[in-house]
Amino acid sequence: MKKFLRRLKQMPLFILLLFSTGLLSLTAYAGKDKQYGEYETDPVSEPFCAVVFQGLKDGIYPWDILTGRVRTNETEEHLEALLSQLDAEGAGTAAAPKVTDNRDTSPVQEETTEPEEHADTTQPGGQEEEAQQESTSPVERIPDAETWEEDEYGSLVDPDNPTHLLADSMPENVNHKVMPAVDYGVANRQYMVADDTVFNTDKAGLFAQNGEYYTFREVNDVYFSDALVIGDSRTVGLREYGDLRPYASVLAKESLNVYNLFTKTLDFTTPDGTFETTTLLDLLLSKQYRKVYLSVGINELGIPDTQTFYQKYREALGVIRQLQPDAIIYIQGIMHVSKQRSSTDKIFNNTCIVQRNTAIASLANGHDIFYLDMNPEFCDENGDLYPELSADGIHLKASAYSKWHEFLLANAIYRDEDDYLGTGPIEEGVKIPGVTVPLEEEGGEETGEEED
């Protein structure tokens, strides 16, 4: 024992490192439900105490544990005011998910006893606006809609824009389907809800169908000139390696999740090369975008369950719509992980991911909120991320991010010419319904030529 102690005295740096790691781990554990409640670490690749360093980047200090102070600032206060307004108007209030089993003691089952009318109070503007929306059909709202032709799905098709449809219910070719995955039986069910849970049951409001729909079409990079792409470390990779930086504004940061989405300081880049740090809330208050892409969810797999995640995601979309009233909102499904991850990791597995994608996909209404699922482009027949596309089973390799960029180009919504014109020119020869493409004459003057 004395020999061992003498050796320890000869390793002061090791002792200091060991003591510091232990102290930071205790700090992280003490604040896991408050100061560090929104952070998640991967125990395979980083120690638990890493959340302390993540907190430092966001202005959360270890001594806040002693005072019990949870960081608040003007941005958070503004966010709380917006959420309170949404709750008062019903837009941020989620109807309780419905389940079909008979477990009397299930927390989910208990929450489904809320009155049915609670599910219908989700639209800013109050009951009068809801009643008007329910009583006015798309054919009545749109001039000459009765002259539209019927397609193979039974929908009426706009003769001026074949991606614009009218139908009694959402057609099969609107929104992406959630890609399933093999369940390897390792998922920790405490982070999930019953498999037969139905999430969005709204009959009116922001997340309800209104009979008017749009289908996806292919575009070029000009489409992104007025787009904001928001996301976590995967979106950081898309910005750095996916050839998107010259065209779109990107707001992203590692460890971003739906719980710190609006208040976390993020890296913001614009197509002209401008770089700054800001929060999503401050950015949405200062600028207007025509398209908003949201990609979060991988960091939330263990915080805490699908129902809570769904509620926070729903609230986030409500705030975005409130601040960006004209934007197309794209819900990007959570990208799957590799088989090696999914078959061994209790938290980061495709079983949890598929359930959470199912939850957020239910919020896509098909007319101004759309669900994108890129997983069929990146996964095998079992729903597992191709191993050759990822080094760690979660993040894409640099060479694979171009596939994501190509996927976005092939799956875009076009409602009218304002969705495409953005702030940049349309390339000559690109055919877009209803859009005039400028052509240069020999004298340098521009003329308009209507494309089919």
Task: Describe the structure concisely for a colleague.
With 452 residues, the protein is α/β, with parallel strands linked by helices. It is built from 16 helices and 13 strands.
What does the secondary structure layout of this molecule look like, with pairings?
Layout: H1 2-9, H2 12-30, H3 50-57, H4 64-67, H5 74-89, H6 107-111, H7 126-135, H8 138-141, E1 149-150, E2 156-158, E3 161-166, E4 212-214, E5 227-231, H9 233-241, E6 249-252, E7 266-269, E8 275-278, H10 280-286, E9 291-295, H11 306-323, E10 328-332, H12 339-342, H13 350-361, E11 369-372, H14 375-378, H15 401-410, H16 418-421, E12 436-440, E13 446-450
Helix pairs in contact: 5-11, 11-13
Largest sheet: 7 strands, mixed
Which outline best applies? elongated
The largest sheet has its strands arranged as 8-7-6-5-9-10-11
Second-tier CATH architecture of the largest domain? 3-Layer(aba) Sandwich
Question: Which homologous superfamily in CATH is the superfamily of the largest domain?
Answer: SGNH hydrolase
| Radius of gyration of CA atoms, rounded to a whole number | 24 Å
